[in-house]
């Protein structure tokens, strides 16, 4: 497959030296081996891969995304599949699992609105260690999730209009190059210039207010 890609796009071959190319192909073989230990792709026919989805919620919030894979059973049931190149989070890292499922519920909600069908199963495939994480969503749960997304968007709007962005310290702060400007580290943020497209913010705010 690599040779086919190079034949189609010859510029790709020049972007990697011999060591980088070997490392890339070794990692790809590992991930593909992990996948084939979990599924036989000859035994099912996905309805779509990299499916673009777009829906508008009640307050005008527009959701867009790309779903890795959508399977449809003969009975019409939907299964949403997402591939992860990392390893499955250990039981102690419940937050990582929560974040992954947040993404999957996002996809399920878009399908519920666009197709009127509740996905029967959300599946995460962790290729690095050949693990599966399955979840069966509930319709009422997804509708509540939609309200959560709208509340998050209203919070983003408020922050965008007022410049009130609260620090949220975590272990990731060690990677941040802006600690000198962060109140959590005793810094002072620079003056807030406002959102580049403030008119859009106002328009969405009006939609939100009218929906309320």
Quick structural overview:
It comes from Mycobacterium leprae. This protein has helices at residues 2-8, 11-14, 18-38, 94-115, 139-162, 198-211; strands at 48-56, 62-72, 78-84, 121-126, 131-135. It has 212 residues and is of the alpha+beta class.
Q: How would you sum up this structure, described in words?
A:
The chain is of the alpha+beta class. It folds into two domains: 37 residues; 169 residues, Alpha-Beta Complex (Lambda Exonuclease, Chain A). It is 43% helix and 18% strand. It has six helices and five strands. The chain has a five-stranded mixed beta sheet with strand order 1-2-3-4-5. β4 and β5 form a beta hairpin. α4 packs across α5 and α5 crosses α6. The chain is globular. 12% of the residues are buried. The C terminus is likely disordered.
Features of the shown structure:
single chain, 212 residues, alpha+beta, five-stranded mixed β-sheet, 6 helices, globular, disordered C terminus
